[in-house]
Design a protein that fits this description.
This protein has two domains: about 140 residues, Aspartate Aminotransferase, domain 1 (Alpha-Beta Complex); about 250 residues, Type I PLP-dependent aspartate aminotransferase-like (Major domain) (Aspartate Aminotransferase, domain 2). It has 15 helices and 15 strands. The chain is α/β, with parallel strands linked by helices and about 400 residues long.
Length: about 400
């Protein structure tokens, strides 16, 4: 089989330069960008430069010395998602962001959390924890026949139950599905319902604009398609939420001032969702990653990723014993497959021995979806714009050998 994609120049991406700025490309084929992308040299440089400054000056002193750059980091993230710097809070990761947002909602017994059958596993677990502890009701809007939440039925559920919050994962971790978050957002705005979007897998691979989405919260991480470092994420918080005075359950001295023996005052920005202690080297590196993606062009990145995913789905479907899960119109940067009589975790190990990185998922990562597809798990392949045709070819050969038992 021969992998064919349009020339790189058609995507306005200087692939040679970008790969030269990605040291990991020299030693392995990295197709686990939905897990953690390979960082670029500028991102790594931002981390090490600040750590060296901390070693020289001290942690607090280095933070003070880089206060302007840290303030600019909020601007970099805001530009990437169409928001304002005051509406950005840095966190440790997307799940921490999601939990901070959920904790700000004043739930009462029998309040409804409305979500989808494709929300991230950690999110689903948080919903169930709230259900067990507070007595809220968790409702899942049904999917369309072709996959993805049925927005018309979700709108009906919003109108019927007036949920306390609606939560949607933009791109599920277990497929290339892209959910219609804009339509859901319009319905939530109309009904005055709080709307939380998990953009963990979409940030950095497709355009995001919180004004178009109409969300009150948007959670994301740096390490995936944005190509930032592990250990950093952010939460977008809308003006509506700030004006309502919502704040995280466990607000700390960074997000509020202790004003009296029995009183405190939350600050008037999304920073009320932050904690005092944070790795500012990772924040600065996340800002560099955001600027790096912006300089390439999110539209160009999305087109390149969609092309590679389309290629993968087509070529993998022609390998005997390989089942490509999902629909052919699922063109987010994730492809999941099963290989007949092969354990996905063992395939990951065998591919790593050939310097090819992918990841494995079990049923627990996506109970609704994998039960519907009647699989116990899957191999997840997630290309990014810096991957090449030759790298795709090497994966296809390796999967073919595993499928036929030659490897």
């Amino acid at each position: 089989m021969t992998a064919q994609t349009p020339p790189d120049k058609d995507w306005h991406i200087d692939l040679q330069r970008l790969r030269a700025e990605t040291p990991g490309c020299s030693s392995r084929v990295h197709l686990n960008n939905a897990g953690a992308s390979l960082m670029s040299s500028p991102v790594m440089g931002a981390i090490t430069t600040h750590l060296e400054l901390e070693a020289e000056l001290g942690g607090y002193e280095a933070q003070d010395a880089k206060s302007e750059e840290i303030a600019a980091a909020y601007q970099s993230i805001a530009r990437l998602i169409g928001g304002s710097a005051r509406n950005i809070a840095f966190t440790e990761n997307a799940t921490a962001s999601f939990a901070q947002a959920l904790s700000a909602v004043p739930f009462n017994r029998d309040d409804v959390i409305l979500t989808t059958r494709n929300d991230y596993a950690s999110n689903q677990i948080q919903f169930l924890s709230l259900q067990a502890r507070l007595g809220v009701r968790v409702m899942h809007a049904p999917d369309k026949a072709q996959g993805g939440v049925d927005t018309s039925k979700m709108i009906d559920l919003i109108e019927q139950h007036r949920p306390k919050i609606v939560c949607v994962t933009h791109v599920p971790t277990n497929s290339g599905l892209i959910q219609d978050i804009q339509t859901v957002g319009a319905a939530c705005r109309s009904a005055g319902v709080i709307y939380l979007v998990d953009a963990c897998q979409s940030l950095g691979q497709m355009p995001l604009d919180v004004r178009d989405i109409g969300c009150d919260f948007l959670s994301a991480t740096a390490r995936k398609f944005l190509r930032g470092p592990r250990g950093c994420g952010f939460l977008y918080v809308s003006e509506r939420i700030l004006q309502q005075g919502l704040e995280p359950l466990f607000i700390d001295m960074h997000g509020a001032s202790w004003t009296g023996e029995n009183s405190y005052q939350a600050i008037d920005s999304a920073k009320r969702f932050e904690n005092w202690e944070f790795a500012w080297s990772l924040v600065l590196a996340t800002a560099v990653a955001a600027e790096y993606a912006t300089s390439i062009g999110i539209g160009a990145i999305q087109a390149r990723v969609a092309s590679l995913v389309s290629l993968l789905r087509r070529e993998l479907s022609e390998i005997d014993g390989v089942d490509v899960l999902g629909n052919d119109d699922e063109l987010g940067g994730i492809v999941t497959i099963t290989v007949q009589d092969c354990d996905p975790t063992k395939i990951v190990t065998r591919l790593r021995s050939q310097n090819i990185n992918v990841s494995a998922q079990g049923r627990e990562h996506a109970v609704f979806d994998y039960d519907k597809k009647k699989v116990a798990g899957a191999l997840r392949i997630s290309p990014h714009y810096y991957n090449t045709n030759a790298e795709i070819e090497s994966l296809l050969r390796a999967i073919g050998s595993i499928s036929t038992g030659a490897d």
